[in-house]
Amino acid sequence: MSKPSVRSLPSLSVRIDLDSEGRIGPGKIQLLENIRSCGSISAAGRAMDMSYKRAWDLVDEINRICRHPAVERQTGGKNGGGAVLTPFGISLVKRYRKIERDAATAVRKELQALRSEIGRPKKRAG
């Protein structure tokens, strides 16, 4: 096994608890980003190795807990149906990613210190 020459920092993951039952975290935000880039819930779910049902349940949960639709389904037509992010959905993704960046910046020194401490060899007893 070869060791990487540059160790990466421990990473920070942000989950925002909106209330006791509603949360927005990296998985839901990634799903929204995938819907935006893929144009459909099913393709976004596949990109994350997720079933359509699971992806749709998460979209439904996001729309419910935010009290504003983040995703709108488009009815089928010549090119079939699809889904798009609403202006609120776009804003939600942007705001979450800003919170994530700001939090990572705020704790960078602590993550570096943690990496340094974790990387130290353990002292032997005796």
Structure commentary:
Helix 1 (26-38) packs across helix 2 and helix 2 (41-47) packs across helix 3. The mean pLDDT is 87. The protein has helices spanning 26-38, 41-47, 52-66, 87-119, and strands at 16-17, 23-24, 71-74, 82-85. The relative contact order is 0.16. It is mainly α and 126 residues long. The strands form 2 sheets. The chain has a two-stranded antiparallel ribbon with strand order 1-2. It has a two-stranded antiparallel sheet with strand order 3-4. It has 4 helices and 4 strands; from the N terminus they run E-E-H-H-H-E-E-H. The two termini are 30 Å apart. It is elongated, with a radius of gyration of 20 Å.
Question: Features of this protein?
Answer:
two-stranded antiparallel sheet; elongated; 4 helices; mainly alpha
Structural classification: mainly alpha
Sheet with the most strands? 2 strands, antiparallel
User: What is the rounded distance between the termini?
Assistant: 30 Å
Shape by Cα distribution: elongated
The helix content is 40-55%
Quick structural overview:
With 126 residues, the chain is mostly helical. It is 54% helix and 10% strand. It has four helices and four strands.
Which helices and strands, and how do they pair?
Layout: E1 16-17, E2 23-24, H1 26-38, H2 41-47, H3 52-66, E3 71-74, E4 82-85, H4 87-119
Antiparallel strand pairs: 1-2, 3-4
Helix pairs in contact: 1-2, 1-4, 2-3
